[in-house]
Amino acid sequence: MIFNKHLLQHTVQRTIEIGLQKATLELLDNLGVTSISKIGNVPEDGPLLIISNHTGVFDSLLLFSQISRADFHFIGLSHYAIFGPKVTERLLPIYRVRKLNHKIYEYPLCLQINGKKPVNLTVAEIRLRNKESIRQGAKLINDGNAVSIFPTGGGGKALNDSHWKAGVGFLVKQITNPLTRVVFVQIKGTRMSDLVAYLHPFIRKLFFRPRLISIYFSEPRLLTDLVDQKDDGKTIARKLEKIYQDAWK
User: Fold this and answer.
1) Domains: count for the chain
2) Which end of the chain has the lower number of beta carbons within 10 A, N or C?
3) What is the spatial distance between Cα 131 and Cα 129, in angstroms, rounded to a whole number?
């Protein structure tokens, strides 16, 4: 795969010059994603857990482009660090065992943008690092910050056939701030195939077709009103999944 190295490196510089929200909006615009419909918002301050579906490769960028909080962090795949230091400051990295379909794009992406191959970790190392990212996410929320998570894990899964991973439950169990609120986010219109938008401009013009993207933010609700944090992580994840699905029927 041949990525648009100039555009991605330009975005890294723009995050430093104008900030993450403006830079991600600019990147989406440069990719041709100009029709974004937003309904609702997140609280301007206070401890917040943002739970979103994950239908496509633009989802993390969408959240950054639509959430103005300077204390907003996100739990996401470790290779988002290619977007530079400003993104890395907000990233709580999640690692995975790379299958062939992951290697096909992650290796050329990292090599072309920062000249380094992704680090391959053992399963034990992956679990340890992911637990630490979840712990850090809970600490950030306890300290009054905002943190987002995609509880389905990998992207492109429909709500009616995916089961949330227990990570969101383990995160919730470590949140001790009683003022923590939860906002559910529903994204529509993104796809995993949108990865082609990051490729060489000639390839993008041939295969990428921009479409309307919608992002909906629910009303914030107290975490303690939604789940019993004494339950195990898997039970909490199942309860939150049902609440999420009921919210967007």
Assistant:
1) 1
2) C
3) 5
d(CA 110, CA 42): 32
Torsion angle of alpha carbons 203, 205, 206, 208, nearest 10°?
90
d(CA 12, CA 33): 18
Is residue 224 included in any domain, yes or no?
A: yes
Average confidence (pLDDT) per 10 residues, the chain, 249 residues:
89 96 94 92 98 92 95 94 93 88 79 83 95 98 98 68 86 98 96 88 89 95 97 95 90
Please indicate, yes or no, if residue 111 is contained in any of the structural domains: no
91 burial level (CB within 10 Å; 0-12, 13-18, 19+) = buried
Is residue 45 a part of any domain in this protein?
yes
For residue 178, the 8-state DSSP code is T
pLDDT on residue 156: 56
Q: Which of 114, 97, 121, 190 is nearest to 150 (CA)?
A: 190
**The domain containing residue 132 runs over which residues?**
34-80+90-95+123-247
Count CB-CB contacts under 10 A for residue 112: 16
Residue 14 included in any domain: no
